[in-house]
Amino acid sequence: MAFGRKRKVVPFRSAGELDAMAAAGAVVGAALVAVRNAAVPGVSTLELDRVAEAVIRDAGAVPSFLGYHGFTGSICSSVNDRVVHGIPSADEILAAGDLVSIDCGAVLDGWHGDSAWTFGVGDIIEADAMLSEATRLSMEAGIAAMLPGNRLTDVSHAIESGTHAAEKAHGRKYGIVDGYGGHGIGREMHMDPFLANEGAPGKGPELVVGSTLAIEPMLTLGTYDTDILEDGWTVVTTDGSRSAHWEHTVAVTEDGPRILTVRP
């Protein structure tokens, strides 16, 4: 008797579990909005961190970043040439024109939400605004590929295609940050599979109803190469170019992709 190979699928949740993840995601969304509202010139990234933590704890949730492998913040605050994993600090003071990427996670009733966005402090130059817009469009292209029957790298390819479409529309090139990407998520923040932000379609595990991924493109105005600072966390562009980061936790449903980290 011959048995076929069991098909590999991206881990999936029940409808009720997706609702529980959406509740955690809503806390993250509220924290991000509160942080953006507080991000004015003269405010430190540590103050933004305290805003996020207060929102998360007031909702009965726990910041999932705080203490993660020793990380000291409830958010990652990555300003200008910092790509991801910036550590909130009392010494880092926001100024008008800064481009700020905030990544935030919360766990509620054992389920994780993870989301990020990039915004300007006051008025920002057009190139920075376009960079953030291109990154958002890349994320949305990836979200649109969260369909039953698609494969993991169909999402990667959609993100990359979204970047190239933005390049065409904006008349410039963007760097797709090498080596970083999205991930599975559920009862842990980072789960398999790893989701690359570029690549050929049609490979990897299959998406099924209930599959969840954190989709998070990172683009720069220059290089795709990065370094990690001496703090062991902060990822920076090697050429000093500015970077943007957008992320949503997303589920596959019969009615199309469902964003689980909706912002109020």
UniProtKB/TrEMBL annotation:
A divalent metal cation 2 binds at D114, H183, E216, E247. Signal peptide: none annotated. Binds 2 divalent metal cations per subunit. Has a high-affinity and a low affinity metal-binding site. The true nature of the physiological cofactor is under debate. The enzyme is active with cobalt, zinc, manganese or divalent iron ions. Most likely, methionine aminopeptidases function as mononuclear Fe(2+)-metalloproteases under physiological conditions, and the catalytically relevant metal-binding site has been assigned to the histidine-containing high-affinity site. Substrate binds at H85, H190. Its EC number is 3.4.11.18. It comes from the Bacteria. Keywords: Aminopeptidase, Hydrolase, Metal-binding, Protease. Transmembrane segments: none annotated. A divalent metal cation 1 binds at D103, D114, E247. Residues 20-254 form the Peptidase M24 domain. InterPro entries: Creatinase/aminopeptidase-like, Pept_M24, Pept_M24_MAP, Pept_M24A_MAP1. Its cofactor is Co(2+); Zn(2+); Mn(2+); Fe(2+). GO terms for molecular function: initiator methionyl aminopeptidase activity. It is an enzyme of class 3 (hydrolase). It holds the Pfam family Peptidase_M24. It catalyses: Release of N-terminal amino acids, preferentially methionine, from peptides and arylamides. Removes the N-terminal methionine from nascent proteins. The N-terminal methionine is often cleaved when the second residue in the primary sequence is small and uncharged (Met-Ala-, Cys, Gly, Pro, Ser, Thr, or Val). Requires deformylation of the N(alpha)-formylated initiator methionine before it can be hydrolyzed. Monomer. Belongs to the peptidase M24A family. Methionine aminopeptidase type 1 subfamily. This is Methionine aminopeptidase. It comes from Rhodococcus ruber. The lineage of its organism: Bacteria, Bacillati, Actinomycetota, Actinomycetes, Mycobacteriales. The gene is map.
